[in-house]
């Protein structure tokens, strides 16, 4: 019985080729002491020890390879932000602000998933400053965003599409950041459980002179100060001006898409990164790095129910997109029309597949439909970081200086070649 128990380990220790023994022992570090020169078959214990020592380096290399290819290794939004902080792409305070926004998005995602059960669908019965009917979740999501941002103690000014004016956070008025956001984009999709989203942009509150250096400013009494500001007291003027910055001043921007997956897309000015909410961990997990929009595409997204209200040049552009390739010069491509009714969904698809999204001005909305601060600037910032282009048809969106907090502008955004093509039609 005793011999049987030793038989298996003995065979395991002796099971290797003579070549292996020679190779291992050719290393002076692993060679036996001269007083015990290898002759014939050594004891199983001695051979096993030598084999284990010789295999040490190989095992270490294998472990290191496993670490690099470990399928269970994940990177959360929090750990990614900390790494960006370590390499100097953002500071600790901005890390906290972005984390608070991600927390707000998680809460909103949960509310949307149970909206029908919790009776949160339908209209609130109120109208926002835009003159639009507010859904119940518009109001709730706005409160969620505001509360999460206040709790950081680092947000000085909050501007929401749902609020009449920017809010100077009293408990943190000295905060370094101005955050603009649309708490729920595409809220008309809530009742049918279609795609919705949240959009945000973050500015430095000290960059508050309408995009012009402080030394270049006229005194406040000067006629150069917008009339809307001259009517306000000094504190309110400071709040409004801190918000009315061009998109090129953005420190960070992003959106959260609530669909079959909850996707958080973010840029800190060094590429675009996508994180997907893992319900098992309750964390956003990095799923796409350095997203690059295709230079061109064959998808266009316009609300064509407004076709008759558009400028003739824009009509010509749309008509030409619809022409069959067989009837056009060689090299033409066939375009497909897609329209979700949610800016976040439109931009997310365009980032991945290319093409163009447009929300132009028309006879009824001569200044366009989308808000510059809360929608157009943050989205243009993201698309440009991915190699795309955002334009009002004549000017880069990020260069437009807001004249008021709820200013609307037309927007054409997407693949650089597609936007450039449209601008030629409108020129």
UniProtKB/TrEMBL annotation:
Family: Belongs to the FBPase class 1 family.
Domain Fructose-1-6-bisphosphatase class 1 C-terminal: 293-426
Enzyme class: hydrolase
Catalytic activity annotation: beta-D-fructose 1,6-bisphosphate + H2O = beta-D-fructose 6-phosphate + phosphate
Residue span, Fructose-1-6-bisphosphatase class I N-terminal domain: 77-289
CDD domains: FBPase
EC number: 3.1.3.11
Biological process, per Gene Ontology: fructose 1,6-bisphosphate metabolic process; fructose 6-phosphate metabolic process; fructose metabolic process; gluconeogenesis; sucrose biosynthetic process
Pfam family, one: FBPase_C
One term of GO molecular function: metal ion binding
HAMAP family documented for this protein: FBPase_class1
The protein, known as: fructose-bisphosphatase
The entry's keywords: Carbohydrate metabolism, Hydrolase, Magnesium, Metal-binding
Cofactor(s) needed by this chain: Mg(2+)
Gene3D superfamilies in alphabetical order: 3.40.190.80, Fructose-1,6-Bisphosphatase, subunit A, domain 1
Phylogenetic placement of the source organism: Eukaryota, Viridiplantae, Streptophyta, Embryophyta, Tracheophyta
SUPFAM superfamilies in alphabetical order: Carbohydrate phosphatase
Gene Ontology CC terms, in alphabetical order: cytosol
């Amino acid at each position: 019985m005793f011999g049987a128990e030793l038989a298996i380990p003995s065979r395991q220790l002796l099971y290797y080729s003579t070549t292996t023994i020679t190779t291992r022992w050719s290393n002076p570090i692993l060679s036996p002491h001269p007083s015990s020169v290898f002759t014939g078959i050594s004891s199983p214990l001695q051979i096993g020890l030598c084999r284990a020592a010789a295999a040490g380096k190989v095992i270490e290399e294998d472990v290191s390879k496993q670490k690099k290819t470990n399928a269970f290794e994940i990177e959360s939004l929090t750990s990614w932000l900390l790494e960006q902080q370590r390499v100097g792409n953002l500071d600790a305070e901005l890390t906290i602000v972005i984390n608070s926004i991600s927390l707000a998005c998680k809460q909103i995602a949960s509310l949307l998933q149970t909206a029908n059960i919790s009776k949160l669908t339908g209209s609130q019965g109120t109208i926002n400053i835009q003159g639009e009917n507010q859904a119940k979740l518009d109001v709730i999501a706005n409160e969620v965003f505001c509360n999460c941002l206040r709790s950081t103690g680092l947000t000085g000014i909050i501007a929401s599409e749902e609020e009449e004016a920017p809010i100077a956070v009293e408990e943190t008025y000295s905060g370094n950041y101005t955050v603009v956001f649309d708490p729920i984009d595409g809220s008309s999709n809530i009742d049918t459980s279609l795609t919705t989203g949240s959009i945000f942009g973050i500015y430095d509150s000290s960059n508050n002179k309408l995009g012009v250096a402080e030394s270049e400013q006229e005194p406040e009494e000067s006629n150069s100060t917008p009339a809307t500001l001259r009517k306000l007291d000094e504190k309110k003027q400071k709040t409004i001006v801190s918000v009315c910055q061009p998109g090129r001043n953005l420190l960070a921007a992003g959106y959260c898409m609530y669909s079959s997956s909850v996707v958080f897309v973010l840029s800190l000015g060094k590429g675009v990164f996508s994180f997907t909410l893992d319900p098992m961990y309750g964390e956003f997990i990095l799923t796409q790095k350095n997203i690059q929009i295709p230079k061109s595409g064959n998808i266009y997204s316009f609300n064509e129910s407004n076709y008759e209200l558009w400028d003739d040049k824009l009509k010509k552009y749309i008509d030409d997109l619809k022409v069959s390739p067989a009837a056009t010069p060689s090299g033409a491509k066939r375009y497909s029309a897609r329209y979700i009714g949610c800016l976040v969904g439109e931009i997310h698809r365009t980032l991945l597949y290319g093409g163009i999204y447009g929300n132009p001005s028309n006879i009824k909305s001569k200044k366009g439909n989308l808000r510059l601060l809360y929608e157009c600037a943050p989205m243009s910032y993201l698309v440009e970081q991915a190699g795309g282009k955002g334009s009002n048809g004549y000017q880069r969106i990020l260069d437009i200086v807001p004249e008021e907090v709820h200013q609307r502008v037309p927007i054409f955004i997407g693949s650089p070649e597609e936007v450039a093509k449209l601008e030629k039609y409108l020129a």
